Amino acid sequence: CGRKGLLVSSNSGGDQLTRYNSQLNVFLNDIEFLDTVSGITVGNGVILYTSNAGASWNPAEYDSINVPNLVCCQIIAPDFSIALSSDGQLLHSADLGKHWTYRKTIGEGNFTSITFADKENGWATNSSGSIFSSDNTGYKWEEEFSIDNGLFSLTRNESQIFACGLGGMVLTTCIDTNLEELRYDEPQQPQDFVLYQNYPNPFNSATNIVYQLKREQHISLALYNTVGQKIAILVNEFKSPGRHIHHLNFKNRSSGIYYVKMHAGDFVSTKRLVHIK
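Now predict its structure.
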């Protein structure tokens, strides 16, 4: 799944691809199948479901919900599907994605990923480095672990949970272990200057600008519009070596394409930002 509602499938191990255009001018951010027939996909303000192996996709129905920017989804069982928005709203479906209800707002921050081990126990991450957990089907969440490093993806196997983030950081713990005992490898001292792609992107109201410095350096981080006009200075100061995250609030800006440019000595890098409402 991807830009402009595009869905791509293969039943030949990727040798041949079938394209399906949902006719929706939105970004689709995630896709999940229960089996070879039933699946859901989510994106900015939309949920689609299929019951014929992706041959066609139908818009879901919502119970008094203004559907937010949904970043990920999961089907745990035929009567338990969930979808997570970037602002932490958790939606639930009991019929393989056909109808959805609001369940809970997990917490604050830009949420990036969610996974459930079963109908009761789930975990969610945000780009500020927090991991939240629930043991009552998602109705109550608690922050159980936090680290000064953005976390962007979360998955599990039968016995372990894995989370990954900036600088190659990987966290892991056993499902039945307190999350305070998470093990992780501390990233090595950065060897280069890097401006990472902002996350999330596209985004609705806020995003994170992440950059890395190999030594103490005066840096400039600025925001530009599509005609090259500088519209905001985000950072203009000396920063210590390592990774840094700048939280960028876009609530008062119009939708469209923007660019963020970083100067650090001779290093210059630019990234493209997509703001949608």
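The chain has a mean pLDDT of 86.
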